[in-house]
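The data are set out underneath:

___
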Amino acid sequence: MKISNPEKLHDWIITLLLIIIFALIFISSLFPLQLNDSWAEITAALLQEGKGGKMTLLDLIPDIDTVTERLLVFAPFGFLIHQKLTRHFPQHAQVISVGLVVLVALAVEIAQAILSMRHSRVLDFALATAAGFVGIKFSIPFSNIFASPNLNTAHRLLPGFLWLGNYLIVCICIAAIIPANTNISEWDCHYPLLIGNELSHDRPWQGKIRGVAIYPRELTANEIRNLSRTPMTPENISPRNEAEAIALYSFVADSNNRILIHNHTGPPLNLAINRPELEERQSDGSTLHFYESLPAMSTAPAHTICNTILASQVFTVETEIVSSNLMQDGPARIISNSLDLENRNFTLGESHGDLVLRVRTPQNGSNGNNIPFETQGKVLAEGWKHVIASYADGVAKIFIDGEAAATPLHYQKTLILDTALSSMNILAAGFLLFGMGVMAGMLFSQQPPLGAAALSIFSTSIFPVITLLFLAIWLERHLSLVLVSAVVFTSLFGFIFYRKLRRNLLDVNNYN
């Protein structure tokens, strides 16, 4: 394959790929585009006041989705911008590329501070710039690849594309294996406990609630049946204490209009509504009415509840509710231990008369919604309902009035090839591996054949498998033989497909 003007082809391809990368950076980093209304809200977002004043800018806890996202978009961006500048500013391409990577990464974090649904962190900025620098460093050996006007462009690009494919495979392995864990291990104990809404006030629930209990274990069938027959009123705390409730709320207001916790393990964690006049209207004996957008929220972060659940790796939420609007959606937040619309430890909500349970795990994401779990058939219709929702050992369950309201969701069974990849991501990875096999077959045709063969085999089979094994051992994950076989044979199939196609074409040409 000879190209008459490889420099123009190179420049056109790089420009097109840069446009695509910019679009990916914009979509992955800035959506949804919901602006903060004022500078005060921007400052509050930076300080993340819902986390007890902990500055999100200095939060050094890595988020695997963000890590993978930065690796996938900023390393190719660094590579492409350096390739683009090498042609126009060969003497200063490296310095300008570094500056542009830093500028774009900084612009993303500033823009995220302005958006109410995103968070700025120094760690994210560091990850983006580091990935960009890797891309620039990788680009330098290939900066003069188009110097010869008679260059066989496709074959000269093959090693670079193979290593770029390897980089993407590593990112996919990280995204696939690390989240494939259903343990409760990434909860943030700075989140408050909320009833009736999120802190952002845009997921209001309309209904009445009689009590809330949280347990650091899974209740037995007998306990579920007995508690479902025992109203959640102040005089019925004994059976819930016996079931080891770590938080038990009854909604009786004191002289300061605070909704008192009736029983709790550890320091008191009171709930309150920010406007007392609404609280007076919303409380009626032991029942709390929700028809305004303001939530009842804990006056401090739910440290004890969170830490106890982290220690036990199991939790159960019990409540007694009646829905006032079977068309509310969002899901509308009934009980939530969360910071905003995208960050939660758990949430029990309502969507069109059905219950939705979200639990944060590495597999399920920081919003707990990668694999949704909800009931069917408007289970909240027809008056008061006693609700128990639990999560234990990767299994979620919901009971209404003592009876199972949905088939338990076994999150481990939702994994594909023992990874957290969706079917679409599996398909995309398959195409990538097949394409790498095809490129390896093209490279195999080059001279010297021994070096080409070694690079082909290493790139398409050995390197991905070594990466998978290393990550599995490091993270103590079980690695499926089916997954390893799929990685090897998909790329091998691409290699054989190209070699067979090439041989047939050569036979046809020789015959003619």
User: Anything to note?
Assistant: Residues 142 and 160 are 8 Å apart (CA to CA). Residues 45-58, 146-151, 276-283 have pLDDT under 50 and may be disordered. The chain has 13 helices and 17 strands. The domain at 193-410 is CATH 2.60.120 (Jelly Rolls).
